[in-house]
Task: structure prediction
Amino acid sequence: MSTVLDNRKKKSGGKSRVETKTRPRAARPRTEHKLRAQATAGAAVVRTERETGEPKLINRSKEWKLLYVPYPFDESMKITSGHAMESMAGVEVETYKDLCLNCLKQDACTMPRPEGGVWRCEQFEQRTATIEAKPRKVSVHENVLAQFNRAADTMGLDSNLRKILAKTTNETVVNFPVKMDDNRVEMFTGYRVQHCNLLGPFKGGLRYHPAVDIDEVRALATWMTWKSAIVNIPFGGAKGGIQMDPSKYSTSELERITRRFTYALGSNIGPEYDIPAPDVNTNAQIMAWILDTYLSTVPPHDRQRCTHVVTGKPIEAGGSAGREKATGQGIVYLIQEWARERRFDLSGATYMVQGFGNVGSWAARLLKQLGAKLVAVEDVSGAMANPKGIDPDELVKYVSGHKGLIGGYPGAQSIDRETFFKTNADIFIPAALENQINAQTARWLKVKLVAEGANGPTDLNGDAILQEMDIEVLPDILCNSGGVVVSYFEWLQNKRSESWELEEVDGKLHKLLVNAFARVMNAARTFNVDTRTAAYIVALTRLETAYKKRGIFP
Ligand code: NAD
Result:
């Protein structure tokens, strides 16, 4: 349910009343802070009719005109004080996204939207109240579904398939105990969501992060299905993770957590069924522990046939040449394709990177090799810039001695987040977490291209703004697919007991991505849509064709 607080007279026979109607939730940008807003007395609740989308107003006292509600308020919004609002004090109200109360048309108002979370009233009265609202965490899965529905509408996706793909296939949640170094036992919650295995086994990374939850994992699993379909590899989509902050644990604790998680997942993963890989805060070492634990649970004579249960392993434990850099390498191949089409010279071009982990640091290093200049970086420890250039190779060395963080690097000036987003650069590579490019930050960008290394770095509002600002996008499901492609190569090598040279891996990766890029650009031209919708259309077309051939059991 979504509603908004407002103060305005409703001419309904002179009587006020509260309407309670529901409407489907729209995706809303995430804001971390608590928002305090001043609203005037006579607050009314606006609810929206499901059928018409028109808000209805309920008058409480004076004629009010709230101009804009800039934030996606949450269900937890509360009126905490207020002289003339005593009757409503403490009442929980549901609130509404980006609703311009000037015209009362959600998303349709052309009025300039103020930054920050302040309600502005045309007619100010001394009777005020304090509203405390904690914005709802954006649902990443809502984001995926909105992207999916947009593409499905455009291409006229089969209505049955639409129902199927909007849902995940299996969702596993495991709670498991692990003994800590000090002999305490801690409980952990792990997830594995399998979205679709029509085109091949479920495939997708494992993330260790405090924000991991079922909604996020669902979204990430769904994106994996589209990704594998776009690049034409025989995998479906899955994702998993553990809700925790790995920086709080020792290496031996991390090993026990990983092994216990693998054991708890049991036969929900398997080399021909569901194959995990690294993602945020997981790496080759963690994959090696998963491999070893999984192999310990199968009979000895089957073990050598199961090394492809996980990809992204260390080379010595069955990994592939080129897997560690694969996602960054893929991003750079695709940027090169984009530059070739646009006749844009990458040597001397400037770029900024958010997230300096596996994906961000490799993309940065490989772009440097093309003569481009890194001018700003941000990670969880803060942001820094140097218009003369930051050497990514030097930064990688620094980071490896500083707990993986860029903070304190002497070769750049420390800057705040807003300045980071406003950096003058040609290319922005978000390579951290979801929803970083949103209604606020998108407007700050001054780049020509956003090459999405992260999964879901742009929310729906951010996406619309990028289009409005004519900033081109290499969408995540295409742009970061290099990782799953080389995972596929690793999987194949394990199955065939082969070991490919780096040149072979890179050559095959390049070919697959160049073809995928061409398919997406072609779909963008054919359907006259943005590149994200085009990438979805490519993926959904492949899935639709397979479904139509196979039919639905029984
Ligand atoms: P990683 O753990 O190696 O690095 C994550 C980086 O993001 C770190 O530098 C961290 O400091 C930074 N970060 C975290 N929170 C941040 C914040 N709030 N603001 C700024 N920076 C922040 O993870 P990774 O493997 O590089 O993955 C990064 C992104 O790429 C994720 O979205 C992941 O799903 C996606 N991805 C990864 C792969 C892969 O092969 N590893 C493949 C495809 C997509």
In short: The pocket of nicotinamide-adenine-dinucleotide is lined by residues 278-281, 327, 354-360, 378-380, 431-433, 453-455, 480, 483 (CB under 6 Å). The mean pLDDT is 81. The longest strand covers residues 185-196.
